[in-house]
Amino acid sequence: MRRLAFGIAIASVGLAMPVSADMFSTKSQRNLFKSQTKVLDGRLSKQYAGSTRLKPPTIHAPSGGMIRGYFGKYKGEYLEMAREAARRHNVPEDLFARLVQQESGWNPNARSHKGAIGLAQLMPGTARALGVNPSDPFENLEGGARYLARQFREFGSWRLALAAYNAGPEAVKKHGGVPPYRETRNYVRVIWGS
Fold first, then answer.
1. Which of the following is catalytic: 93, 103, 139, 142?
2. Domain that holds residue 15
3. Looking at the domain assignment, is residue 65 inside a domain?
């Protein structure tokens, strides 16, 4: 009787071996993993469909869908510095490069008749509020990009952010959009393209 039980046990192990070998083969594991992943992906995509936290940040572009590139003649050291400052503050690089081109023509020593200083033409009070030295090209660009990003967060559009950068946020609020000042309208048109 013992021999019969032992024989049955050996036979059952022998029959089970091909099943377990198939179950643990690489191809079977891969197929099992794919099917489980598909189920999980389907469930998670439904669960997190409305999540704003998981969406990548968006950069708002003109109605044409693309932000115009920077095609200025200046290709010197400040251009890359401006691009880096723009990236740090989630500002479209080409938009910020066109802003600096319009503001100072890439002259780090530029001073406006209203008292704005440097590459990004920061007013002394704005530079103080941002905690930057407007005479230092790196800090000036850093402050300019940060200030433009702040205006974008305030107004929700790059066009209005540019208007606020030029005329001040209070003027944009007062007029409910781009102020009717010739200088500001031209500024937005040249940099934004509309």
1. 103
2. 2-47
3. no
- For residues 25 and 101, which has the higher predicted lDDT (pLDDT)? 101
- Spatial CB neighbours of 105, under 8 Å, sequence gap ≥ 6: 74
The residue among 187, 139, 140 whose CA lies nearest residue 167 is 187
Q: How many domains is the chain built from?
A: 2
Question: Is 93 annotated as catalytic?
Answer: no
State whether residue 58 is helix, strand or coil. coil
Q: Counting Cβ atoms within 10 Å, is residue 97 exposed (0-12), middle (13-18) or buried (19+)?
A: buried
**pLDDT greater than 60 at residue 55:** no
Q: Which residue has the higher pLDDT, 78 or 68?
A: 78
Together in a domain, 182 and 102: yes
- Each residue's pLDDT tens digit, 143-188: 999 999 999 999 999 999 999 999 999 999 999 999 999 999 999 9
